Amino acid sequence: MELTIDLPDELASKAQAAGLLNSEAIEKLLREQLRKQAGQELRAMMDKLGADGTPPMTEDEVQAEIDAYRAERRAKRSTQT
To answer: Cα separation of 38 and 41, whole Å?
Structure first.
């Protein structure tokens, strides 16, 4: 994909001097920003989940939920055959 951007002359000069106006550098900057945004979204989601006052599940509770789900899937598969 080809991308064209308009930058102020001073910013473009500084970015060029810093070696940031090439495909590799821009790809790295974009990947870092996407990772940062994903982390921020995850933190916001975790904050929202914690705001309802429900205490976090213990490892045993999580495992019990997983076991129940797997048992339900096995039961569904056995009735389908």
So the answer is: 5
**Per-residue confidence of the chain (81 residues) as pLDDT tens digits?**
898 999 999 999 999 999 999 999 999 999 999 999 999 999 998 888 777 787 888 999 999 999 999 999 999 988 876
* Dist CA 17 CA 6 (whole Å): 17
Distance of CA 80 to the CA centre of its chain: 36
Measured distance CA(19)–CA(12) in Å, rounded = 10
Domain residue ranges of the chain, discontinuous segments joined by +: 9-80
- Whose CA is closest to 22, among 32, 12, 36, 37? 12
pTM: 0.57
